[in-house]
């Protein structure tokens, strides 16, 4: 068998959080690594919802020395208040102030684009990025993987091919010999995200969460932009048995933004929340509308020799997906270092550590939790609202957080190996 290269030549498909964390971490281990990223879009996508950082990912951003920059760019959201038609709050869940025990509002609530920029800034002059390009096919050889491209880039060989190309990863389908959608588990929750060029929260740092029948919800979240803006979200959910509703929403997602906005307008036209007309109008004028579904990727494997699935491509999981992407990027780079660039061995070690942890976060219970938080019926809404009011009025939520802190109970973390990272020069 050929000896490992002195520094790796890596191709990453997909330009996002998982890929930039992996690239940055690999460059700490191998400063002379050659890293190429191909991205199907014409530019880095910086739109989308706020994301949060939890569990072992918190330790990683601290290790990367990015915590101060991330805290500086957080949304400053202090909690979530549940409101009625008139916008009056009946229950509020506050952030904890403890990054080891977090509620709906994370201590690191940050917009996806801002987080991506922070990771990218560390490596922007050390990585080659090719936009409007995708992987067409690949062939594995004994000591390399030969990759062919779809849009003009010449075929080339790499030591490792990393698929960080998201929920609909073509490379996952190639690697597993299945259709792209076979291992996607649709949770039946669909959301759109957009900027509202007005502060609809009137300076408050509490997000507003409004629900009505039919599993429909409206979110208003604070935006730290000093110009005074709000982030708006429309969300609707459908039970697994409601195949017609799911098919209709998925068809609109596939058709693009215009089709999805029309669906939102149709779905929310009769909603009684007092700010609905203004939010619908803002959706139409936003410069960065984005829509997606909540879905898990339940891949049986996340590696095959010199091909690896990273982040959402291998183990998408709403709620903790960004944290899994950060963990995965760190662990994959760490295993390459630990195994002295024996790529197949490192990939297997990465899978053995990352896949069981990701699967433990992907319980079907999460589907029902979202459905219970966004009920279909008036009766379901009454029950949910009553429970939320009782829990917060009695401060049960705060007592529970205090007890967890007192007992030293933290969020479940992955058993991270101690990798032999070289010292970072000041």
UniProtKB/TrEMBL annotation:
InterPro entries, A to Z: FAD/NAD-bd_sf, FAD_aromatic-hydroxylase
PANTHER family: MONOOXYGENASE, OXIDOREDUCTASE-RELATED
Protein name in UniProt: FAD/NAD(P)-binding domain-containing protein
């Amino acid at each position: 068998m050929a000896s490992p290269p002195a520094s790796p030549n890596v191709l990453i498909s997909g330009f996002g959080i998982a890929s930039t964390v992996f690239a940055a971490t690999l460059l700490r281990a191998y400063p002379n690594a050659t890293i190429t990223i191909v991205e199907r879009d014409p530019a880095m996508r910086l739109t989308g919802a706020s994301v949060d950082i939890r569990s072992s990912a918190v330790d990683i951003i601290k290790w990367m020395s990015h915590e101060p920059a991330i805290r500086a760019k957080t949304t400053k959201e202090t909690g979530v208040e549940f409101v009625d038609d008139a916008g009056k709050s009946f229950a509020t869940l506050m952030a904890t102030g403890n990054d080891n025990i977090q509620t709906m509002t994370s201590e690191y609530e940050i917009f996806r684009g801002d987080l991506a920029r922070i990771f990218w800034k560390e490596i922007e002059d050390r990585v080659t990025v090719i936009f409007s390009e995708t992987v067409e096919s690949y062939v594995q050889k004994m000591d390399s993987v030969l990759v062919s491209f779809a849009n003009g880039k010449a075929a080339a060989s790499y030591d490792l091919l990393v698929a960080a190309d998201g929920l609909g990863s073509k490379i996952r389908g190639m690697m597993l010999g299945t259709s792209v959608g076979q291992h996607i588990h649709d949770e039946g929750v669909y959301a759109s995200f957009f900027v509202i060029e007005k502060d609809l929260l009137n300076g408050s740092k509490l997000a507003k969460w409004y629900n009505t029948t039919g599993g429909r919800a409206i979110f208003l979240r604070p935006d730290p932009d000093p110009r005074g803006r709000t982030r708006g979200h429309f969300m609707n959910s459908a039970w697994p048995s409601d195949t017609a509703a799911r098919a209709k929403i998925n068809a609109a997602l596939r058709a693009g933004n215009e089709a999805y906005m029309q669906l939102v307008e149709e779905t929310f036209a009769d909603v009684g929340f007092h700010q609905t007309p203004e939010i619908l109008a803002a959706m139409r004028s936003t410069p960065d509308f984005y829509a997606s579904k909540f879905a898990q990727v339940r891949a049986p494997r996340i590696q095959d020799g010199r091909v690896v699935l990273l982040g959402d491509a291998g183990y998408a999981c709403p709620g903790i997906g960004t944290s899994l992407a950060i963990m995965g990027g760190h662990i994959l780079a760490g295993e390459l270092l630990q195994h002295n660039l024996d790529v197949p061995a490192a990939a297997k070690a990465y899978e053995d550590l990352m896949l069981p942890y990701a699967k433990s976060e992907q319980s079907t219970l999460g589907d029902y939790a979202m459905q219970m938080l966004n009920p279909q019926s008036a009766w379901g809404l009454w029950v949910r609202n009553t429970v939320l009011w009782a829990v917060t009025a009695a401060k049960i939520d705060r007592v529970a957080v205090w007890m967890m802190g007192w007992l030293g109970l933290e969020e479940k973390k992955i058993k991270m190996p101690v990798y032999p990272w070289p010292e970072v020069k000041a």
